[in-house]
Amino acid sequence: MTREVRHNYPQNFAAYGADDRTPSAKNMLSDALLLAFWIAMVPVSMWVGSAAGF
């Protein structure tokens, strides 16, 4: 019984999704909207916490 010690994985994480395509406008817009959503959640959660008395 042999045990595989060395795997056939790339050396760095960036090599997994490395492709030469540029990101589409749809992907960039969805990333920006997701970032805006998470940024907006900080003051909203603080406002809800304040309204609840925490």
What report would you give on this structure?
- There is one protein chain.
- The protein is mostly helical and 54 residues long.
- It has one helix and no strands.
- The longest helix has 28 residues, at 25-52.
- The mean pLDDT is 81.
Q: Brief description of this entry?
A:
This protein has one helix at residues 25-52. The protein has 54 residues and is an all-alpha fold.
Secondary-structure blueprint of this entry?
Elements: H1 25-52
Radius of gyration: 21 Å
Oligomerization status of the protein chains: single chain
Range of strand content? under 5%
What is the H/E string? H
Please tell me the overall pLDDT.
Answer: 81
* Number of helices, where a helix is a run of at least 4 consecutive DSSP H or I residues: 1
Number of strands: 0
Which segments are poorly predicted (pLDDT under 50) over 5 or more consecutive residues? none
Helicity range: 40-55%
**Biggest sheet details:** none
Structural class: mainly alpha
Distance between the termini: 59 Å
The global form is elongated
What would the keywords be for this entry?
1 helix; 54 residues; single chain; mainly alpha
